[in-house]
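#random but structural
TW: two for the price of one
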Amino acid sequence: MWSSFLSRARPTPERTPAPAVQCTVDTSEDVAVSVEDRHVDISELQPTIVLDDSGDATLLVGTDSAALQPVQVSSTAMTLASPVWKDMFEKHRKANGAIEVPLRDDEVDALYIALRIAHLRFHEIPRKDGLTIDALLELAVVCARYDIVKLVRPFLDLYGWAQCHYPDTDAGERCDPAWFYVAWTFGYKDSFQRLTRFIVKKIGLDEDGNAIMDDGQKLPKYMPPGLLVRFVSVHKPRWSTIFPSFKVDKLAMRPTISSAAVVLLLSAAPVLAQFPAEPVGLKVLESRFGDGVKITYKENSLCETTPGVKSFSGHVYLPPGTADLGQGQDYPINSFFWFFEAREDPANAPLTIWLNGGPGSSSMYGILEENGPCYANPDSNSTRPAEWSWNRASNMLYFDQPVQVGFSYDTLQNITRDLVTGEVTLLNETTPVPEQNTTLLTGTFPSREANNTAFGSVNGAVAAWEFAQAWFQEFPHYLPNDTRISLAAQSYGGRYGPAMMSFWEEQNQRIENGTLGEEGYIMHLDTLLLISGCVDRYVQYPYYPEQAFRGNGYGFEAVNETTYNAMVESVPECLERIQNCRDAAAQDDPENLGIDAGVNEICEDAETYCRANIVTPYNQYAGRDYYDISTPSPPPFPPPFHEGYLNREWVQAELGVPLNWTGSSPQASAAYRDIGDYPRDNWLDDLGFLLDNGIKVSLVYGDLDFACPWGGGDAVAKAINWTGSAGYASAQYAEIQTNDSYVGGLVRQYGNLSYIRTYQAGHAIPAYQPETAFKIFSRALFNLDIATGTESTAGTQESSTYMSTGRPDPNVQFDAFTSERLTYCYTWDLSSCTEETVDAVLDGSAEICQYLVVDANTTQLFPEVIAQCRAGSGGNATAPGEHSNSTLPEFEGGAARVGGRAWTFWSGLVMSVVVSLTL
């Protein structure tokens, strides 16, 4: 997960309106220097206060404007109390053993309380009602500065100091705002939450632009680090319009503008901002072939909770040059995998590799949205078991590729991100971390180098082969009796899949005939499933206009007839440009490696024209989701809750990953698109090659999908040239019996080739129709007819080849969609939010809970989550273990933090409590 810079050092309290004080004691400079270095005049000193008769150190306490007070102390007592004090004494011990340390920056009375506690002089500290709120605030600052929160915290409760000094906010009045920093420091969770509600609602500015509460009261002298600046900076563009002289460093706020946008900002803060901790508990396997390849992995308890079923996550490291295809792979590849054993008899189950598309999308979408053992819950902090997980039938290996996608990386790069502007800055070893004077977050990601990833589907297939060779030969927890390996790829997987499987089969044949030139592992390839696959642009582009207008099987007109006609009229030129691309590639880049700049440009231009004239009109005018024509845009399905879940710190620790999660990599996407990978050909030839070598191919499409329409998928199946083409052309479309009461779609099947139209399913078919998708998958895997699962398709003679029977075409018509889905806004995925919803957040009328904007729809869809937030026990700090397949960390306030790590938790609380506001 991400975290503020201040999570890497002790937090500094933020002053209002002056800059924050330095909270981490710098023991190497002028925080604690000797009397001689500070030129202390003896006339400045007052009579010595003795806290220890045998004390070996003298503190000179006071400010530059007051006479210094000598205090005789025990360095031993103070060293035991505080590591900061320990370092201070060690650095300033004189040759004769004496220690003199001036402390000019501390509020005297607050420091005396802390020193008396450290010296066990409890009878000299104030009793109940003996501290004003201002004195308590200064004590909090001292405790944070010297890391003695744990030492002092018990006395707040014992002597009655821990009170707001006003009735609390929920009772109808308020705590003093100064309590905000006190509660943050000492870990008073509930009152911190209540006071946050109050401050977010009431903060404003006076006539001079100074930040104040709306009743004229000044803001507290200290604030939790960075929060006030976050409150302000998110509104900077709007306030700058209202007040041209507005400056963030003045902390100016307009009282009539509420701080709802801060909620959106802070909802990302605890998960978007953190340098992930070094993974622990990893096992490291060096390749036995001595080629520098290694596997790091750990067993985890996430997601799959079936007793006795194991899961492992990790990385396969490939050194530079391992996957070199003549293009100079001069960067390392660390490919992330998550392996789940089959729920039943894993030793005798086959294995299936799953890939999401993009190009550049993480396969974690598949685990937590589609066909994995669990779904992410609406709280984005827990999961629930998936009944129709594909590991019911197969061992499952989910693989983030190409490099820089998901949790896969080349080299690690720390970055900063400005959440207001979106600007990203790379941090090198010699680059100082900039001061946090605005909404600035940090994280660890892949290098973001444009050239450090696979260029196109063919190059990606080579890297995937090297990953597979290492994993299947070295990973010790996969020792199957059934060695069949299948590949399921979605969306852009219509290119990934054919390119990978055909290359892998070619490599298998080279190993068998001895021409590979190296020892290799033969992958016993069984089935290729393409889920909503965009395989061949020339074949499929003509079906986009039909999917948008009446030809979708529902009679639905997503665009009007004028727009439809314009889309249709653009098809001929689109196809001509695609053919020009293919002709150029055949001449100058026949292997589709992206090595000829001229070919790349021709192919990229072809795709640009086709998308602009055939796809974009739907996106512009339909008002419907790109991946589901039945759903108004923005989409509410599949739920995006995995995005918050995968960026939880505890989840990343369980997975053993050293970086933040990238759902979609712009570098990987650009690398494929820039060479014009989309409109190139050979993918149909690859499918024919696979079929002729006994490998099954299933093309599965959802009839609600616009991204890769089902009509185009039907055309792809017909266009494959293989030895069974004539038999396939004679097959008919049979109903798919999902169960005794439900027909899940239509299938046309001949031998090893099947095409499926899945009813009432969008792009992510397993999410829409989990049982139907599983039945298709398992029947294909185990050589059963897709229609019923009762007939064997494993015949080898022409006379015994299975052929489906039924209707002559797949054009079954429905009167209406099954149901209209309720939309909602999830702040981790702003594409799910309407412009009106975003405006509501910015103008202060939004309520946010667990990254969900609360409205009638979210209240209806997620009543438990919303109720928990409004009860004050929810937010994004979900109760440990609740609705979770894993144990969450217990609550730790400032009193339990180490090295300032509480900042991440407390900034999360700020965000979580605001969700219950009606701003």
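TW: number two ↓
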Amino acid sequence: QVQERIAQAEIPSDAKPALGPLSSVIGEIYRYTLESKTMPLVELKALQGWVLEREFRKVPGVVDVVSWGGGIKQYQVTVDPERLRAYNLTLKQVFDAVAANNANAGGSYIREGQYALMVRGIGLVRSNEDVEDIVVAAQKGTPVRVRDIGRAGIGHTIRFGVLGRDHDDDLVQGIVLMRKGENPDAVIRGVREKIAELQKTLPAEVVMRPYYSRDRLVQTTVATVMRNLIEGAALVIVLLSLFLYNLRAALIVALVIPLSLLFAFVFMDLRGIPANLLSLGAIDFGIIVDGAVIMTENILRHLSEKQMTGPRVLREVQHAALEVARPLTFAVMIIMTVYVPILTFQRIEGKLFRPMAVTISLAVIGSLVLTLTLLPVLTTFLFRRPPSERESPLLRWLRAPYLPALRFCLRRSAVPIGVTAAMFALALFAFTLLGKEFLPELDEGDLWLRVKFPIGISLEDASPYVHDIRELLLTFPEVRVVVSQLGAPDDGTDPNGPDTAEFYVGLEPRERWRMRDKDRLVEAMSARLEDIRGITTNFSQPIKDNVDEALAGVKGELGIKLYGQDVFVLEAKAREIAAVLAGIRGVADLDYDHLVGQPQLQVVVDRLAAARFGINVQDIQDVIEAGTRGRVVTEIFEGERRFGLAVRFASTGDALARLKTLTVSAPSGERIPLTQLAEFVKTEGFSQILREGSQRRIAIKWSVRERDMGSLVAEAMEKVEASVKLPEGYQIVWSGRFEDQQRALARLYVIVPLVIFIIFILLFSAFQSIGDALLIMLNLPFALIGGTLALFLWRTNFNISAAVGYIAVFGVSVLNGVVLVSSIRQARTEGLGVGDAVLRGCALRFRPIVVSGIVAVTGFIPAALSHGIGSEIQRPLARVVIGGLLSSTVLTLLVLPVIYALVAGRSEPATPQAESA
């Protein structure tokens, strides 16, 4: 369908639209430079384009290879205008002669005896000598050859880009693109194997030097995540041993961890669901073993209290398991339900968080299945004798103040309820003070720098500045390599002009740094770059830069898109907006699209003058083309490789003066100077015309530094609206990561209330009581208190990762509420009054609730404190879970029973025991 639409588009005849490769915005997985001290640059570029590109495309998962730098090899016939005039030849005759003398032909076949001989006419030129022997015309029986009016040689096409690396100014680069949906590890492994194979066949003087590989980031990130997981698992197992105070019980619970993960990963592999950083990093072993802790603790308590041995152990284990099976099942259903909002995420947040929700949900399902089946069986076999009644000293130390505190709260119910209400109000106030952003920035370990030069600068004049910038960046000991891309690649996939240079700045491992962190390094680099006048800079990261541009269409972290019809009005208003933004704290790397100001030389044809001499406009255009870039009239084959053959005038001296000396042949044979047929006008034109949604637009873009995105955008919106007045028909759209944040939060504002309602329905179906269901729902604000205060005290911005943390902690908090209320209701069914039932239920479920809460918190501590590469997205989530679980656990044990007693006590008179409590 796209091809059909393209075919219907009205475009210039010499324009050739093409579809880009089926690659994602993060498809650049491998970069290398091709270098040689002896091979000419055009031959190096030909080797890259005709050998390496083809070989890399054979690697499974590689969809394309983009080549940068060097010049595309071109055979060139350089015509001397004076000799052309002396032989009274026209430029068109040269074009036609060169094209007509380079062809093969098929002549069908002829019979010779019993054989059919295929007839082929061979007329392709093979060398410069063949080209120079081409006859252009014959004058008085004497042929005029190409060598008589010029010479043939090898050069290159007009260059649109230059690539440099470290101290070398002109190299060739290859960028390997991965097909969308492929596994980067497998593709990079295939690329490395292909490189090892190619190195054996390449010329000895040619070297491939890689400088960027996606697996470096993946390996570093996975190492960070795995370290956090291992530390979290170790802490969980140690705490289980300390709290359960029984090595066999601790091992039974710990066994659930690997088996649950195996269950999740096998299912994901069967369904083709990919795992990513958050799929692994968001796994809290404490949450996974919550149900196992509750089940094991209940079984051990039953066996310890009744001191059963032999065959009766099986019956008691079965009874204890059935006692908690129903609430555990409902709790898992609720945990899975709270992850529904994450499954509705779209675009980048969906790519990041949906696999996480699937992974945790599957792991929790696996844990439930194991808890209801394997755990009772294992406890039956491992506890033939009744377990010891000894309680963990740590648990005993925690329990000692608990019951007195609970009795105090039951007697003075206004105190805990009032304190909780005040804490909730404090948390809401703290939330208003939190910084807001879309996602925490993942540290990729490298930098990407974009530099803008004044519009109209030439490739040759910009190159020395690019060299100086590379040398400047290399003075920082944190930098290991700098690769510059000035202009555009030859295939036009990145339509930059010579006024744009991009730099890959590869950084050393963090332990070798002199600076404290990356922000300080960027500030130091920015300060040094300010010494170069006339440039603007924008610092980003390789993947982030591509993602920002693809999602918002703006080469910056944040942007304002201004739509309208008049390009000059658009640019004027963009300058006004940029001036307003420049005065706002936190705005960095400010720039806007420059639509006008491109210097042009317009050769305006005088149609009346051309008509007087009988000259066509195309004849004039032919001369202009030959006097500048040359016209490609045919191709020369070198085996399978083919290169254009262009005809052009000799280029010596001042280009403009030379162009003005050219003449055009009239039908009468007269040579008319180009200056008599056209006017040479120096002017300024459009440097680019940007369109989006069938409208012209301009973008103002900037980065955020040392401030949160939410407050900065809010201030910017207010000041721009107050200061900039737009004409009728013009509109502003705020884009970039802020737009993504607003879209994701808007979806959560709809889905989260719906999920809370579904949780309420599940609770009501479980307890058949609106009061009990609403009571358990109080655990949501309980968790909100701790999660928000954790963000505030840790000075962490609220973002989508933190929002996912709230969602995760809501599920675990409701689980604890379900367990506690179920225990209290069970005690009431045994004939106890409300007060006694509350005390008994809380005493029985103190250990599983405390153990599951502390173990879950402990599992996230390494992620909350980690500062390694890849930990940025985990930290807000982990900190919210830690704070939310701590507050939820404490308030579930102290405040929830108080409210239960108040509500239930209205319908039942207090017993003497309750009064004494």
